[in-house]
């Protein structure tokens, strides 16, 4: 199969607590990507990341959230690896929303 470039933007629940837990969750998402056989690209993110106000509140775990931690990751993967990565992201309760796109 042909390796493609992907971009993943996800929003983490701001109520998870300390910065260590935030860093731990981003590390877990990176592990989801690498465990599926993909490789994470090096370099600076192209979008601002960190705690930001949401455009509209999102109901998550019985709470209406108005903020979230935005995280942006670039990686390279084969198309058959994407469903595995998406499944792991969907099962993570601390991720509010995500968007995974192919970069042409």
Description of the molecule:
With 104 residues, the chain is of the alpha+beta class. The protein has one domain (4-103): Ribosomal protein S6/Translation elongation factor EF1B (Alpha-Beta Plaits, 2-Layer Sandwich). Helix content is 26%, strand content 44%. The protein has two helices and five strands; from the N terminus they run E-H-E-E-E-H-E. It has helices spanning 19-35, 82-91; strands at 4-12, 39-40, 50-60, 63-77, 95-103. Strands 1, 2, 3, 4 and 5 form a five-stranded antiparallel β-sheet that branches. The longest helix has 17 residues, at 19-35.
Topology of this structure?
Elements: E1 4-12, H1 19-35, E2 39-40, E3 50-60, E4 63-77, H2 82-91, E5 95-103
Antiparallel strand pairs: 1-4, 1-5, 2-4, 3-4
Strand/helix succession? EHEEEHE
CATH superfamily, by name, is Ribosomal protein S6/Translation elongation factor EF1B
The overall pLDDT average reads: 87
How does the overall form come out from the CA principal axes? elongated
Per DSSP E runs of 2 or more residues, the count of β-strands stands at 5
């Amino acid at each position: 199969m042909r390796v493609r470039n992907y971009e993943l933007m996800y929003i983490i629940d701001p109520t998870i607590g300390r910065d260590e837990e935030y860093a731990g969750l981003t590390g877990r998402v990176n592990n989801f990507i690498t465990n599926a056989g993909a490789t994470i690209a090096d370099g600076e993110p192209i979008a601002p990341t960190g705690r930001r106000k949401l455009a509209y509140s999102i109901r998550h775990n019985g709470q209406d959230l108005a903020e979230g931690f935005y995280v942006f990751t670039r990686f390279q993967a084969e198309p058959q690896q994407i469903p595995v990565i998406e499944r792991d992201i969907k099962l993570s309760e601390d991720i509010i929303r995500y968007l995974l796109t192919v970069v042409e």
